Amino acid sequence: MKKEDVIEKFASKRPEALGIYGYGSGVFKQASFCDRKEIPQTDLIFIVEDLKSWHLENMQLSNQDYSLMGRIHFNFCGIQKLKGMNNITYLSNILDDGIYFKYGVIEIGDYLRGLNTWDNIFVAGRFHKPVLEVKSNEEIKEAIDYNRRCALIIACLFSDEITSTFEIYRRISSLSYAGDARMRFAENPNKVFNIVNGSFDEFVLTYPLEEDFITVLDEGNIFINHQVLLDKLIELPVELLNFLIETDTDFTSLDVVRINIGIFLLMKNRKESKAQIFEGLMTNGIARSVPYALAKVKKRFGK
Hints:
Elements: H1 3-11, E1 19-23, E2 42-48, H2 51-61, H3 68-76, H4 79-83, E3 88-96, E4 99-107, H5 108-117, H6 122-126, E5 132-135, H7 138-157, E6 162-164, H8 165-174, H9 191-198, H10 200-206, E7 214-218, E8 221-224, H11 226-230, H12 238-246, H13 254-301
Parallel strand pairs: 2-4
Antiparallel strand pairs: 1-2, 1-5, 3-4, 6-8, 7-8
């Protein structure tokens, strides 16, 4: 069965969503899984109208998705506490028809604001990389396109003048991992390389590199015009632009721009990833969170 069909079957047992996307190693190949027998968890994001109402309805349809702690959390917490810092709730280790799923649920308003402004980049970072569209609409697609263009601009700003397409895709993938607290303990340190190496063709389709600041030199190599890129800083998300202005960034200096964008990404990723660790415990409970964390550690050390 095609991966899209598997996801659609899983989603059909749960409340209606405006958008459904698959991502990660359970949807796209990663190099680390090429020679391994285990099947990675399938990661999904559901974009919905109302987060709490969706979960309350889902508890009637698919109560097995929730731990005891999770049922208490979703029934009695206010909406802001449910959303947490990253505006998304995750349920993991959901066994359905012999396949394990992890899925995040986010309201459409929070999703669009995150991708269009980068007030929060936890979800935006997942959409820098290739995703499998199962259900969507034009507003969601436009936000994804803008989010990706911004990721491409920043990846090129950080790259050498002469570089490779692989390096551009590697830098795009790494934007959401810089400063991520989980990379220190649980995630495979080669994760970014594995993502690009295993799904290079998907990156080519997602980022064809047909921009006025990119010149293709020969197969696999490109020239980046940093001067043209500096003129495009005004196109970046408003939260990042505000940070650059507040830090008195010299928009004509490539080195200064690189440093301050790097600081912005490090601070955002570190803060948001730490918050997600705690929030995952609240939605999944200890019994589900510990096996999930151990599986991450196992992947990190290749055991």
